[in-house]
Write a structure and sequence with these properties.
249 residues, mainly alpha, 2% strand, globular, disordered C terminus
Length: 249
């Protein structure tokens, strides 16, 4: 279940951070004005994800449970600072384009979420490839969104002119509303492909949006659906909780 291949495919397809889990929306909508910006932001996040997952997995038996979240943030912030300085020194154009969104990687819910739900509970190697897989999925999503916005909004792709000179760019796509339009359209296409496949009897379990109803193998310990399902399956706990509530009242 936790093989290297499974971890990579999980981040790219089954639990893609952007198109499936809908996480990290702030950088997704803000920096994808071009394909190169989306790719740069995605790869930067992937590096931080892979390094923080590895380091947190190494320390998973040392970090006390009560202070695990502050400890995770310190680890993530350390790697973000390193990556930010490297970008500023070696790729200043990308550093200027991404701007404030580089230090904001520290509070990206994808990174903290993988640290809490996976890296802190699993061995080093699979945690490393989990970070790489989620990072590749994030990079793929941001590059796709950036490419569509750049092509329609400027007529270029990775800075290269693609459409003829007669094309009049639809500049709204490189503005804030364009990010919402493109993200919604790409997610709708994904859902349409899944529904069409299911109608033909194909196994579309690797293409999903949101909860897959597989609570047994789900790593989201904070899932409210699981909580309510457990209460529904255990009426005794509901009875006990109800009695306790009446006593407290």
């Amino acid at each position: 279940m936790n093989s290297v291949k499974e971890r990579l495919l999980n981040g790219l397809i089954k639990e893609n951070p952007t198109f499936v889990l809908m996480l990290g929306m702030c950088p997704t909508l803000a920096v994808t004005t071009s394909a190169i910006n989306g790719l740069g932001m995605g790869l930067t996040t992937m590096v931080v994800l892979a390094l923080s997952n590895t380091f947190i997995s190494l320390l998973r038996n040392i970090i006390p449970g009560k202070v695990r979240i502050p400890a995770f943030i310190v680890v993530i912030a350390s790697f973000v600072t390193m990556v930010e300085l490297l970008l500023e020194g070696f790729i200043p154009t990308l550093y200027d384009a991404l701007g404030i969104y580089i230090p904001l990687i520290v509070v990206n819910c994808i990174i903290l979420g993988r640290a809490e739900s996976f890296a802190s509970k699993n061995p080093v190697l699979v945690s490393l490839f989990d970070g790489i897989g989620m990072g590749l999925g994030f990079s793929f999503a941001l590059t796709c969104i950036g490419a569509v916005r750049e092509l329609i909004g400027a007529g270029t792709l990775f800075g290269i002119s693609i459409l003829p000179d007669s094309y009049i760019p639809c500049t709204i796509f490189i503005m804030a509303p364009g990010a919402f339009f493109v993200l919604a359209a790409l997610t709708a296409i994904q859902n349409k492909v899944k529904i069409a496949g299911e109608k033909k009897g194909k196994d579309m379990s690797k293409i999903q949006s949101g909860c897959g109803n597989d609570c047994l193998n789900c790593s989201d310990t904070a899932c409210t659906k699981r909580f309510y399902d457990e209460k529904a399956q255990n009426p005794e706990s509901k009875k006990i909780n109800g009695e306790e509530d009446e006593t407290n009242a």
